[in-house]
Amino acid sequence: MKTRILNLQFAFFLRDIIERPDIEFKELNSEMLNVFDAMPKMIPTPRELPSDVPVMMLKSSDDSYICNISRSRVDFILVRNNDEKSNADLLKDFNSKVNGLMKYLLGKQPVVRFGMVARYFQKDNMAARTMQKKYFTSAVDGAEELSIRYNKRSESFGYTINEIHEISALDIVSNGRIEKGTLILKDINNNLNVGKKFDFETLSKLTKKYASNINESEIEGLIR
What we know:
- This protein is α+β, with helices and mostly antiparallel strands.
- It has helices spanning 21-24, 28-31, 87-106, 127-135, 200-211, 216-221; strands spanning 3-14, 41-42, 56-59, 65-69, 73-79, 111-123, 146-156, 159-174, 177-190.
- It has one domain (3-221).
- It is built from 6 helices and 9 strands, in the order E-H-H-E-E-E-E-H-E-H-E-E-E-H-H.
- Helix 3 (87-106) packs antiparallel against helix 5 (200-211).
- The longest helix has 20 residues, at 87-106.
């Protein structure tokens, strides 16, 4: 598999600070059909630390699903732990579980921002040269590592949506081996609308609309 998902993440930013998220979200695992089958981990966190520091972690026994819960946000993460599933299958599974989590959380607490993050890696022994041809001039001839970051904004359903792209030619360690290639991160999120919160229908439509922007063909288009 030349281009593969490394991990996917969906963040829900809560309007209010929850003092006891372990109690507030105690049915979260059962609502997600007990996908987090490993022992939950409570993290002792002093109150003076920022409210987005995780205080509770849920995981699946194979480490492919993680849910970090803080007093002001909830992050659901899917991690590729083998190459048996295709990128399309991983995205389908991820989007399905996000939809279930979204319905549960919005029934418990107001959500004011979301973040949808995908990290891909494409194997390429000449990654820096590939990036140079698409984004740079001959001034960077011979570079061993290159990176670029930019944000494309759009308006949808009354929200300003950011699409942040970070593309880097570098080496990563995968299964104990060094691989040369391009790391692509895409972070889709909304600007805060003061006094406004998401309803399930709007957030669901937004995420479905922008989910197509993190599929394999869209990611490969950033480096071809």
